[in-house]
Amino acid sequence: MSDTTSAKNVRRRHHWRRDAVELAALFTAVAVADCAANLIAHGPEGPVLLASSAAALLATAGFHIWFSRRRGHSPPLDEAGDAGDTSGAGAAEAADAADPLASAAPGPDGAGDFALWRMRTTVRDEPGTLAALCRALAHHRVDILTLQTHPLAAGTVDELLVRAPAALLPAELTRAAAAGGGGDTWVERADAHDLVDAPTRVLALATRTALDAAELPLALRQLLGRCTIRSLPERRTDPAPPAEGVLEETVMRLRDPSGGTITVERPYLPFTPAEFARAHALVGLDARLGPRVPHRQDVLTLPEGNEITVRRAGPEDIDAAREMHARCTPATLAMRYHGPAGDADRYLDHLLSPRHGRTLAAYTASGRLVALGHLLWDGDETEVALLVEDAWQRRGVGARLLARLVALAGDTGCESVYAVTRAANTGMVAAMRGLELPLDYQIEEGTLVISARLANRPTPPAPETAPVPAVRREPSGPGH
Description:
By secondary structure, this protein is α+β, with helices and mostly antiparallel strands.
């Protein structure tokens, strides 16, 4: 409550002594005024002096009114009692000092002068450390768009999505974070997709995982950033990790719902307990839902007029794949698997597992499997492989499958794919050339490696659009 309000609500107490003093002061003022008026009025220039005094008083009152109104529209005084500079650079500096983040907002020309960055830095777990980091970044006109905190045993990891001037280099961002008390800083370019908040992104990844078991490696990579994912089969000498998983700084090991171990490595940046908990929850969702493959399928008409159905293949297609192996000649199996024909069946468990890539199957109208196309993730590289039953070779089946496999690889951001075959496999060479992409050839001891660069590739017909991460697989045999 203000003093003015209190004075209005509190009834003043009056005393006769105060009234007597006020009356005495009034009589004294009247007496003094009468004496002054008599002295001036009886003087030779008395009337002129009285008129001049009245004019001076009116001019003083008018000047006071004008000055008070002008002062009411002036900028406030600073601590030293001086008004701030309102023109030129002074105004800009004053605005930046009042709100340093406001100056980092993009101008009317658009966001072309700014860049998005993902930044992660470790600060002390003390009050004021985040404020110091924000001030250091604001000094470089860096705007913090989103912020996540990952508590550690000692300190806190702050993960930020920032918008910085395009001319600001990553090293300058790192130095700015260090000036604000941050350490072990990591900076990576971001895009508009990173503007989605963390809960929304996690829910979207969980939805994709629920619809397709093959999405788990992709979801883990999008959740954790750039990392290497390996799906290792269970061995007696290397048993699966415990149900709760294992976290070792830059490596986490999780129990694969399909058997074995999922190993995630990120050497450049340690995982936090919060990231490990999210990854563990995503794997737990996959385990709870069990095996699942989307039921999408496309009916294609071959040049000769026959129709085939192309769909995603999974472990449920193993029996049909073994029957197709039995109908293939040993030369065809050896051309595909680069080894004895009798070993072909043992590769199927690996090839049809959604953990190691994607497999497309071609079925005839009668329901017989006649071709398999594999997209296998080998670290940062991607391999394509085809097996077409002898009776269906050179009829366009392999070319159709290969076009769709390359489309899947392009959707994941792969820059190239490669195929390993024998130099005598003219059918595979012709299929690769039919992609109309730049090709590189390498021949060593009768083995031909054909690499296709996917940059500026033409849009393939009716591709599947679900992207897949680069998942490093364990070799399952010659030619996989």
